[in-house]
Protein backbone atom coordinates (compact mmCIF):
# COMPACT_ATOMS: atom_id res chain seq x y z
CA UNK A 1 0.00 0.00 0.00
CA UNK A 2 2.75 2.41 0.92
CA UNK A 3 4.66 2.05 -2.36
CA UNK A 4 1.57 2.53 -4.50
CA UNK A 5 0.75 5.63 -2.44
CA UNK A 6 4.22 7.03 -3.13
CA UNK A 7 3.81 6.25 -6.84
CA UNK A 8 0.47 8.04 -6.75
CA UNK A 9 2.07 11.07 -5.10
CA UNK A 10 4.85 11.12 -7.70
CA UNK A 11 2.38 10.91 -10.57
CA UNK A 12 0.23 13.67 -9.09
CA UNK A 13 3.26 15.98 -8.82
CA UNK A 14 4.13 15.60 -12.52
CA UNK A 15 2.70 18.11 -14.98
CA UNK A 16 3.30 17.30 -18.62
CA UNK A 17 2.95 19.72 -21.53
CA UNK A 18 0.69 17.65 -23.75
CA UNK A 19 -2.85 16.74 -22.70
CA UNK A 20 -2.60 13.17 -24.02
CA UNK A 21 0.55 12.59 -21.93
CA UNK A 22 -1.09 14.01 -18.81
CA UNK A 23 -4.17 11.87 -19.45
CA UNK A 24 -1.99 8.73 -19.29
CA UNK A 25 -0.84 9.77 -15.82
CA UNK A 26 -4.35 10.73 -14.70
CA UNK A 27 -5.64 7.32 -15.79
CA UNK A 28 -2.83 5.64 -13.85
CA UNK A 29 -3.75 7.62 -10.73
CA UNK A 30 -7.37 6.49 -11.06
CA UNK A 31 -6.22 2.88 -11.45
CA UNK A 32 -4.11 3.17 -8.29
CA UNK A 33 -7.12 4.59 -6.45
CA UNK A 34 -9.12 1.55 -7.59
CA UNK A 35 -6.50 -0.76 -6.06
CA UNK A 36 -4.95 -2.08 -9.25
CA UNK A 37 -1.44 -3.55 -9.16
CA UNK A 38 1.31 -0.93 -9.18
CA UNK A 39 3.63 -2.97 -11.42
CA UNK A 40 0.87 -3.51 -13.98
CA UNK A 41 0.14 0.20 -14.04
CA UNK A 42 3.82 1.08 -14.47
CA UNK A 43 4.07 -1.42 -17.31
CA UNK A 44 1.08 0.21 -19.04
CA UNK A 45 2.52 3.71 -18.58
CA UNK A 46 5.85 2.61 -20.07
CA UNK A 47 4.12 0.94 -23.02
CA UNK A 48 2.02 4.02 -23.80
CA UNK A 49 4.98 6.37 -23.51
CA UNK A 50 7.07 4.04 -25.66
CA UNK A 51 4.41 4.14 -28.36
CA UNK A 52 4.35 7.94 -28.21
CA UNK A 53 8.16 8.01 -28.44
CA UNK A 54 8.15 5.72 -31.48
CA UNK A 55 5.61 8.02 -33.15
CA UNK A 56 7.74 11.04 -32.18
CA UNK A 57 4.84 12.58 -30.26
CA UNK A 58 6.53 12.73 -26.87
CA UNK A 59 7.33 16.14 -25.37
CA UNK A 60 10.68 16.87 -23.75
CA UNK A 61 9.16 16.43 -20.27
CA UNK A 62 7.56 13.21 -21.47
CA UNK A 63 10.94 11.95 -22.68
CA UNK A 64 12.46 12.78 -19.29
CA UNK A 65 9.70 10.91 -17.47
CA UNK A 66 9.95 7.92 -19.81
CA UNK A 67 13.72 7.80 -19.26
CA UNK A 68 13.20 7.92 -15.49
CA UNK A 69 10.65 5.09 -15.66
CA UNK A 70 13.08 2.94 -17.65
CA UNK A 71 15.77 3.09 -14.98
CA UNK A 72 16.07 -0.20 -13.11
CA UNK A 73 14.84 -0.43 -9.53
CA UNK A 74 17.70 -2.30 -7.88
CA UNK A 75 15.73 -3.25 -4.76
CA UNK A 76 12.85 -4.83 -6.68
CA UNK A 77 15.04 -6.37 -9.38
CA UNK A 78 17.37 -7.98 -6.81
CA UNK A 79 14.45 -9.35 -4.82
CA UNK A 80 12.81 -10.83 -7.91
CA UNK A 81 16.04 -12.39 -9.14
CA UNK A 82 16.71 -13.88 -5.69
CA UNK A 83 13.26 -15.44 -5.62
CA UNK A 84 13.78 -17.14 -8.97
CA UNK A 85 17.30 -18.23 -8.08
CA UNK A 86 16.28 -20.06 -4.91
CA UNK A 87 13.20 -21.80 -6.25
Biggest sheet overview: none
Sheet/helix structural class: mainly alpha
User: Span from first to last CA?
Assistant: 26 Å
- Give the total of domains: 1
Mean pLDDT: 86
Shape: globular
Number of helical segments with 4 or more residues: 5
According to DSSP, the number of beta strands is 0
- Uncertain segments of ≥5 residues (pLDDT<50)? none
Structural features:
single chain, 87 residues, mainly alpha, globular
Structural description of this entry:
Helix 2 (19-33) runs antiparallel to helix 3 and helix 3 packs across helix 4 (60-70). By secondary structure, this protein is mainly alpha-helical. It is globular, with a radius of gyration of 14 Å. It is built from five helices and no strands. It has one domain. The chain is 77% helix and 0% strand.
TL;DR?
With about 90 residues, this protein is mainly alpha-helical. It is about 75% helix and about 0% strand. It has helices at about 1-15, 20-35, 40-55, 60-70, 75-85.
Amino acid sequence: MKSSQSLRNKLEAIRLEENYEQEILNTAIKQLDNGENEFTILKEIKAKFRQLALNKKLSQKGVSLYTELQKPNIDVDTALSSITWFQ
